[in-house]
Predict the structure.
Amino acid sequence: MTHHERQSIPGPDGVLEVFVDIPAEAHGLALIAHPHPLFGGTADNKVVTTLARAFREQGCITLRPSFRGVGGSSGEHDYGRKETDDLYAVLAWAKQQFAATLPPAAANAPYLAGFSFGAHVTTRLARRLSDQGHAAHWLVLVGTAIGAVAGDRHYATEPVAADTLLIHGAADELIPLTTVLAWAEPQGLPVTVLPGADHFFHRKLPAIRDLIRRNWPGFPG
């Protein structure tokens, strides 16, 4: 049985709302970032909840924070900059909160995942953790916002670890697959393409869960 909580924690610019799901036996910690808040993105997005379910099935405590300005989170949208600070704050809180629940290696090497804008911010957080000598254990990026996107937006998405699971829809209408391939190629990073999948992965959500299960890297330590 999974225990569900809604937490309000201190963030850099006020309160951050975080949805926490704790499986009966927890062996890891997973932080999952939702899509663009100015276009309806929330922690209840179906791709986000699918990612959370997949990580819980593997034995992870999952954290789904609401980005600043969404739900019960304070602050205003900052195009990924302060959102990175927010995710970092959530992770720091979780490490303290679950220090007695998780093995030390698991608390210090979390799993990171994100969808769309959330995947972009996740790469920024992963870069910060790596630069500090505390790299994430594994990244899962779905429909990652990279380069020029409709609405005159542009994302300078950070390079990621070679074992990152990068999932993209062949029929993504917002972030073309060609853009993702061009970003991944110089990194030597494989891209898992779901045929027929649009940006929101309608009718493809079970495939995301299955990919996480089949590529599961195990727990830290």
Q: What stands out?
A: Strands lie at 3-11, 14-22, 28-33, 60-65, 111-115, 138-142, 147-149, 153-155, 165-169, 192-194.
